[in-house]
Known about the structure:
By secondary structure, the protein is mainly alpha-helical. Among the domains are: about 5-225, Hypothetical protein af1432 (Orthogonal Bundle); about 375-460, no CATH class. The chain is built from 20 helices and four strands. It has helices at about 25-35, 35-40, 60-80, 90-100, 110-120, 120-125, 130-135, 150-160, 180-185, 210-220, 225-250, 275-290, 295-305, 315-335, 350-365, 370-400, 410-415, 415-425, 435-445, 450-460; strands at about 260-265, 270-275, 340, 345. The strands form two sheets. It has a two-stranded antiparallel sheet. The chain has a two-stranded antiparallel ribbon with strand order 3-4. β3 and β4 (about 345) form a beta hairpin. The longest helix is centred in the last third of the chain and has 31 residues, at about 370-400. The protein is globular. The structure holds zinc ion.
Amino acid sequence: MTAQEIGADERLSGRDATDRTGRLATQRDHDRVLYSESFRRLGAVTQVAIGAPETLLHNRLTHSLKVEQVGRSIFRFLESEGLMPAGADEWAISTACLAHDLGHPPFGHAGEEELHALVTCDKHRANPRPLEDRKKTRCRECDLEDGFEGNAQSFRILTALAETGHTEADDDLPRGLDLTVLSLRAATKYPWLRGDNPEKSEKWGAYDIDAEAFGVVTRGSQKLSFEAESMDWADDIAYAVHDIEDFHRTGHIPLDQYMATGLIEKENGEPEFEPREAFIEFLRYVEHHRGPVSEEAQAELLATTVQFPATRFTGTTRDFKALANMRGYLLELFIGRTTVEGDALKRDDIANEVNKALKQLIWYHVIDEPRLTNIQTGQRRVLREIFNEFKETTEQVALDWKRGAPPSRDMRRLPYALQKYLTIALRQGGTYDRKQRAYRALLDFISGMSEPEAYRTHAVLKGLEPDGRLDSK
Ligand SMILES: [Zn+2]
């Protein structure tokens, strides 16, 4: 079956074994993601690690489950309003929500930046060239000019690295979880290769080595599918709501200080809230860093602060109830302001602005926090030193590799997971040379670690810990 012949409800491999329990194709996609090792790993990957071990915070696994809940709620809401575009697929949205963070490396955004910096030159780190130019001339300074990106890594996991029992182990082109094109399209938030969309050059949806599968999924269109828009909005909602909840609990975001006070009666009899000093200061920060917030959105944002907890979090029943109340209010606000235009999902402008502003609370109080900067310097070092430790050997093994020949001694001495990823990269099609395949596999290996695994691997390599279980995955 050629790429052109694969329809949206078909799998990349063209295979579709019958299901004895009557599940739909996209429902099986959902279940494959849910049961995958890559999904389980997210339980040991943080959003922003600020170091508050006594508090149970969201990790990327619980975050993904909540994104799925929000995604389904959006679908149900639009359906109940009679707004659902024909053919929209609820299971594809669910699948995309579960899968959207699979490619996130250890240590969140800092980890992502470090892995990207390791393989790109100073020039191309922030200024990518389109694929056409990369094909014509290769940059000698970049190890991988298509870099590292969490979304591209998610696509690679879904289509090449993760395993399902439904494809042959010796397939020449690996298929990953062999999802339907519909679900893969739903999981694609940035439907272009690196440098192919000048307006959004800092994000991309796949690496050059995965371009063939990516082409089958996007068919050259840079437009998001309805399902992908739903996933994207669900992610923004869950992120804003659950992260401010977490950081209120740890004491980093003092939501109680934002709560509007003093109900003033306007001339027309409507209530008006009086903002607190902290709110005004914060709004100034948002407008400075993100641009102006409309008057309507400011009023809506101020109204949401009335739903914030009134006191600092100490773990009392009242504290938990206050958080649950705020969470319910915000989820309803955002989901209830979703609509459809043509066949595209439309976020109400005010809801979108309020969402963006709430997310800025995390930057204001957490990400710009000096202690986090120190933690991240250490985390970057962990990833960098693991990469450099394995770089030369992996490169040499890739150069010596012969299809069908028994693995060399050096290959056998690499960590099992790295051997696996290297074999996949070497057998895959695409335009990469041997060295590029080696670096891609090394990034697959490191980005596929949980955070404890990354710390432990680093400690063992540095001789700080004797019990190396490098082969534990
Ligand atoms: Zn370069």
